[in-house]
Amino acid sequence: MLSFTVLQAQVNSLMPAPQKVIETKAKFRVSNLFSVESSSLTNSRVESYLNNILFRIDGRTGIGISKEQTYNGKGQVNIQYDQVAKLALGADESYKLKITAQAVNITSANDIGAIRGLETLLQLLSSDEDGYYFPGVMITDNPRFQWRGLLIDVCRHFFSVETIKRNLDAMAAMKMNVLHLHLSEDQGFRIESKVYPGLHELGSNGKYYTQDDIQSIIQYADNRGIRVIPEFDIPGHATSWFVAYPELASQPGPYSIEKKYGVMNPSFDPTKEITYDFLDKFLGEMSTLFPDQFMHIGGDENNGEDWDNNSEIQSFMKDNNLKDNQALQNYFNQRVSKILEKYDKTMVGWDEILQPGLPNNIVIQSWRGKEAMINAAKNGYRVMLSNGYYIDLCKPASAHYSNDPLASENNLTPEQRLNILGGEATMWAEMVTEETIDSRIWPRTCAIAERFWSKQDVTDMSDMYRRLDINSVRMEEIGLLHIKNQEMMMRRLTSGADISSLKILIDASEPLKIYSRHHQGVTYSTDMAFTRLADIAIPDPQSVRKFNSMVESYLASNSEKDKQNIIEQLKVWGNNHDEFQDLAKSAPILRDALPISKSLSKCALICLEFMRLEENSRTDSDTKQINSLFSEAKKPCMETELMVITAMEKLLQIKFD
Ligand code: ACM
Q: What is the per-residue pLDDT across 601-625, written as a single tens digit (0 to 9) for each?
């Protein structure tokens, strides 16, 4: 059960937590009698945003609200801002929100601040015996970091415009402001080029964004105060470019779109002038299409194999005194940076590109560790952090939440700290599809969004999770599929049979973390169906956290209520295997999960057995049996792992050790 209490002012559920909140006892009643006014500047983001927010309020409350487009300060809900902002790094996103019994006032310097304030207002919608209201507050808010991004890899798997837009809505709900689209990879070239149509025609399997699609995404993002940064990953991760244009590569080819995952050899030939002519025209085209100041050139994981095996490249290196592949890549980066300069774009790249000779206005994206971030910041480069925000590792939200770009041990001067712009969560998509992407990004990314927006001392983990669960449910109203797709995926595997026993098993499990799915015997590729147990299970589920914290609480306080709840849950698990076995009879795909189902039931039953005993009566042979059961239960099965076993072990230890 979700712990969403409706009879409560929602001031404590705000996420990301605002910089300053003063709460009063006032209640502004939501009724169809009040009017909403906003500054009526042309081309403002507020108008359509306001419609959307009012629609969502209406969706929750069933109350129609009238809206005025002129601002004379006489509405009961007033949104006043002085400017329509140009969307750019560092744009002012601050706002003030004041709610009294009589009026709601959002004031901000520009329309981006106003829409951030509207999201806060929506999160405040509360209810009591008398209906719906906004609680009295005086909120002063602004972001801690100016770059609060989400990378979506649209290459390993392609995601429709609709999916991207849905996720932009979710980002806006969490006040994130950069969508980084990873648009080219070994596994696909995902954007239409009119200059070099072979790129998308032969490099994409037909799955790519047209330029109209991209314009529509950029506009949609801009309306939400979100910048769109394109990444064209070069010189490595580049197979898909070479399907149509093998002459750009360091080996003759032929090339085909890669289906497998990993670090591949194909790489641009940095010694040929045609490479730079091509990139000049292509990046020129993209510079016109993408209005943002920044353009990402990747630069990661170029393994140099194809350079080592090309004698002309080797001679070029000797002739030009380039002592190793890193020096050659640096030569390449310098040439590319000149191209971007010509198009008035600022270069962004993964931390591998941080080498001498590049202009010092570039932005480094630190992914391999924190050292690159610190090093870059110390040397006067702007930098944003992704190390620690790799959501595809399927780690818990807590791991990301405790990762602060400006941790005190960084030892940076105040001036150097200013070089740290913020960070990005990275949704690499090897194992992610249209059906699962929402549940891989959300709700865990809410914790990262808060890390980037809220004060450094907002670190209470259990409070973060409390708010995460509330906001996760709220985000369904914008169309996110992170919750509802899970049962659909279960129904697919059970052909209409009752899914309860599968759900009980999944709710106790998580997909394997830290890329270990790649090492369980299945060689994954882009054309496989990602519909298995590990795709249905979600990282860091509330169901697992709930049991684990119940156990912690019981061990700390010995409360009878916790004990009873734990016993109830153990009984559910204990009884589940029989039903699951029946289900697996008619659903052969589930038969591989029988061992994990059996382990869950057996561990639960043994916990029940020993919890019921009054005193320590565990024999040596009991201990042996328990140890062997629990170690079996911790083994991965169908690329998932039971995440409640350690808590069960703790239960037994407290009783009998
Ligand atoms: C990366 O994860 N290769 C940037």
A: 999 999 998 876 544 577 888 888 8
Protein residue with least CA distance to atom 1, ligand 1: 300
Distance 331 CA to ligand 1 centre (A): 21
Residue 261 CB–ligand 1 contact under 6 Å: no
350 touches ligand 1 (CB under 6 Å):
yes
Q: Which residues pair with 99 in a beta bridge?
A: 104, 137
Q: b/e per residue, 208-242, with b = 16+ CB within 10 A?
A: bbebebbeebbebbbbbbbbbbbbbbbbbbbbbbb
Whether 471 has a pLDDT exceeding 80, the answer reads yes
Distance 300 CA to ligand 1 centre (A): 6
Q: Is the CB of 389 under 6 A from ligand 1?
A: no
Instruction: Please state the domain extents for the chain.
Output: 4-141, 147-456, 491-656
One-letter amino acid at 641 equals: E
Q: What CATH code is assigned to 4-141?
A: 3.30.379.10
Whole-number Å distance, alpha carbon 367 to ligand 1 midpoint, is 7
What class, spelled out in words, does domain 147-456 have in CATH? alpha beta
Residue 655 binned pLDDT confidence (cut-offs 50, 70, 90): low
pTM of the model: 0.96
303 lines ligand 1 (CB under 6 A): no
> For the segment 53-73, what is each residue's pLDDT rounded down to a tens digit?
999 999 999 987 777 767 888
- Rounded to whole angstroms, the Cα distance separating 652 from 163 reads 45
Reported in sequence order, the residue ranges of 169-275 that DSSP labels E, i.e. its strands, are 178-185, 188-189, 227-232
Ligand 1 geometric centre to CA of 337 (Å): 20
Report which ligand 1 atom has the smallest distance to the Cα of 237.
Answer: 3
Mean pLDDT of 565-583: 97
DSSP of 321-376, one letter per residue?
A: T--SHHHHHHHHHHHHHHHHHHTT-EEEEEGGG--TTS-TT-EEEE-S-SHHHHHH
Hey, whose CA ends up nearest to atom 4 of ligand 1? 300
The residues that are catalytic are 301
